[in-house]
Amino acid sequence: MKTRWILATLAVAAWAPTAFAQTKWDLPSGYGTNTFQVQNLQWFADEVAKASGGKLKITLHPNASLFKANEIKRAVQSGQTAIGEFILSSAANEHPMFGLDSIPFLATSYAEAKKLDEVSHPQLAKVLSDQGIKLLYTVPWPPQGLYSTKPVASMQDLKGTKMRAYNPATSRIAEYVGAQPVTIQLAELPQGLATGTVQTFLTSSASGVDSKLYEQVKYFYDVNAWLPRNAVVVNQKAFDALDKPTQDAVVKVAAEAAKRGWQISEQKDAEYMKELASKGMTVDTTSDALKRELKVIGGRMTIEWLKTAGDDGKAVIDNFRK
Predict the structure, then answer these.
(1) Backbone angles phi and psi of 108, in degrees to 5
(2) Cα–Cα distances in Å, from 218 out to 185, 213, 303?
(3) What start and end residues bound the annotated signal peptide (predicted)?
(4) What is the separation, in whole angstroms, between the first and last Cα of the chain?
(5) Cα–Cα nearest to 234, from 83, 55, 34
(6) Nearest-CA neighbor of 227 among 207, 211, 210?
(7) pLDDT of 74 strictly over 60
(8) Which residue, 191, 195, 249, 253, is the most exposed by fewest CB within 10 angstroms?
(9) Domain locations in the chain as residue ranges
(10) What is the pLDDT of residue 15?
C-alpha cells in the first residue's frame, strides 16, 4: 500500500511539467502482459514517447500490480494515477452507458460492436467527462463464449451451477438461468476453478488461452453473447497540464491504438478458438438451441437497460438499429 501511495504521489507531481522536465505517467491495467490488450497498451505508451519527442513517458503496470482491476477507474477519476485502462462494464452500476456493450445479443459481431461503439461514443465521452475523465480509446475483447466444467445442451444445465460474475450483466444472467453468481476477477479465476468456487462463466476465447482456463474447463460454447470493451482513459487535469503538441500526440496515437486494437482482437479470436481446441477443449460453434434461449434473456435485459438509460440510451439503441 505504501509503495502504491508513493507511485501515485509521484504521478500527480509529474502533471505540472516544466520546460526542462519530462512528464511521467503510470498506466495501470488489470490484465497480464501476455494479453493482446496489454501488448497494445505497451505499443500506445511507446508510440506516445516517440510522438511527443520524449516529453511524455508512460510506464505500464500490468497484472493489477499498481491497482486492482476494479480500482483503476476510480484511481484515474480521483487523481491517484494520470491514466488507466478498465473494462467498461465493470462500472455499469455507476451509469447505464458503461453497461451498454454487455447487453447480451445486442451486438454479437465485430461489425455490430464497432457500430455500437461509434453511435455511443458521444454519450460515453460525456459521462466520463462529467467525472473529470477524458476517453482516449476503446478496444473490444473477442465475443463472450460460455465455458463449463460439464456439457451444456440448454439453459437447464446451468441451473444450480456456480457462475462467475464480473459485472452487473453477468450477475443478472446467472439469476435468469438459476445459477449462483460468484464475483471473481479474471486473474483469480484459475484458482476459483481449482477450488470449485466457479463451474460456469462467460468470457472470451482470449481469456481462455491467456489464463490457461483449458487446464480446468473442457467445454466452450461459441454463443457470441457480446463484445466487451476496455477503455483507456486519462484524468482531465493531467491531460490539460500537457502542452498542446503533446496533447495532440496523445490523441493521435490513441486513435491509432484503437484501430490497431480492433484489428488484432478480430484476428486473434480465430487463433484463440483453434488453440482452445488444440488444448483438448470441446469447442462447440453450433449451439443454436442454447443461443436461442440466451437471446430471449438478451431481449429482456435490453428492455431493463432502456428503463434505466433514459432518452440518451434510447437514442443510442435507435441509432444502432437503423
Answers:
(1) -115, 0
(2) 20, 9, 34
(3) 1-21
(4) 49
(5) 83
(6) 207
(7) yes
(8) 195
(9) 2-13+22-92+108-140+228-270, 144-226+273-321
(10) 53
Same fold, 2-13+22-92+108-140+228-270 and 144-226+273-321: yes
Residue from 228, 235, 192, 239 nearest 211 by CA:
192
- Is CATH 3.40.50.300 the classification given to domain 2-13+22-92+108-140+228-270? no
Mean pLDDT for the chain overall: 92
pLDDT for 152 beyond 80: yes
Name the fold adopted by 144-226+273-321: D-Maltodextrin-Binding Protein; domain 2 (3.40.190)
Q: Which three cell numbers stand for residue 114?
A: 464497432
Rounded to the nearest 5°, which phi and psi values hold at 153? -100, -25
- 85 contacts 41 by C-beta, under 8 angstroms: yes
Q: How many residues does the chain have?
A: 322
* Matching residue, cell 486492482: 68
Alpha-carbon separation of residue 249 from 153, 198, 217, 298, 317 (angstroms): 51, 44, 43, 40, 33
Contact 8, 80 (CB under 8 A): yes
